[in-house]
Amino acid sequence: PFEIVVANRDITVQVPVGETALHALARAGIDVMFSCEQGVCGACVTGVIEGEPDHRDQYLTEADRARNDCFTPCCSRSRTPRLVIEI
Ligand code: FES
């Protein structure tokens, strides 16, 4: 489990094991655009400000990952207890 803070909306969402970040955000009323929900299309790519995503997609390149400034909430999780994002 980890938490996501949506910095620009002042909202914190808990993401339990078994729920995607995308669904947890939707539960909190935050709609992120998405399509494949499998980490392939890139539609859901969201900005990361703080924390380290646990990338589980096949969309972001190594360079994208190295910048540590975005993740795919449809399938990726977090290596840090908290991920601060901007939508
Ligand atoms: Fe396609 Fe997330 S919805 S990569």
From TrEMBL:
This is Vanillate O-demethylase ferredoxin subunit. It comes from the Bacteria. The chain holds residues 250 to 336 of 336 of the full protein. Residues 2-87 form the 2Fe-2S ferredoxin-type domain.
